[in-house]
Amino acid sequence: MVDTDIPSGTAADTLGGPAGRRSAPVKASKRAWATAASGRTAALLVSPTLLVLTIVVLYPTVMAFKESLYGTKGLDPRTGFISDTEPFVGLQNYADIFGEAGDRFWNAFWNTTFFTVVTVGLETLIGVAMALIMHKAFSGRALVRASILIPWAVPTAISGLLWRWIFNSDGIANALIGHQVLWTTEGFHAKVAVIIAEVWKTAPFIGLLVLAGLQVIPKEVYEAARIDGAGPLAQFWRITLPLVKPALLVAVLFRCLDALRMFDLPYLLIGAQKNSVETLSMLAQNEASNVRFGPAAAYAVLLFLYVFLIALGFVRLLGTDLVGDVGGPKAKRKNKLRRTAVSGSAEASA
Fold it and tell me: What is the DSSP string of 218-240?
């Protein structure tokens, strides 16, 4: 038999003896001190970002909510005199959404949602196609990439004026379809004009982010798939799309948040106070331009909550894909399996 006696003074004796019991609290205190030091360092590094976010995001949000609790200047019904200060009305501006001001608000709300869903959906399809084209190796690829990215580089104000000229009564759009349509007036055709202009402007943005994701996929993966007999369609569904999914989800998230705040393009292309294309941002701006700052702030706060909830739901539902499955259920299952395998191998070696 093999002698398994452990001589005194070894690690096992140290851990089990009085010296080991004395050194254990020392090691624990060192670990606690190191953890606290790393936490202080992390807080110090993050503090400038938190300060900027407080100034840029938190303070304006709090002030907007405070302003939404006040009404407009005018005749005070209690005294009968004209008041120079804004009266405190509490949540009345929010309650009016379900009353006299509700029709216009809900029209702007559904317009905003409709533009977001349709434009982001079309931009995703077209952007992925653009990325696949720009990723291919062919002569003149640099020229094709530059021409695809030009619309995204054009300022939105210039893009709105350009498409307003295209959708004019005697513009290029009517010349192509063969009959006259008043694109910049009330009606569903105004929505179509905004959607076309928005997709043309921002589809290259999704294409650019997806292209960045395509360029990090190893070529060996496609070579192995071709050897296994996978065709182009199978390679796209089983290799390209899963591997480019994190970049695609980030692009879609950014575009959703941007589309929910849509203002400048429909404002310049169609005009203000058009029920067909009026969004929540346009509604808040119109109220503020008419010196009704309380209702305008209420609309802005509701838009902020809408964007925040969409972003939160997006990250909570798809957050594991956005961060590469770090901390998500899949990662936990993988870590559990890894720990089980390591412990099993340790027991086998023992």
Answer: -HHHHHHHHHTT--HHHHIIIII
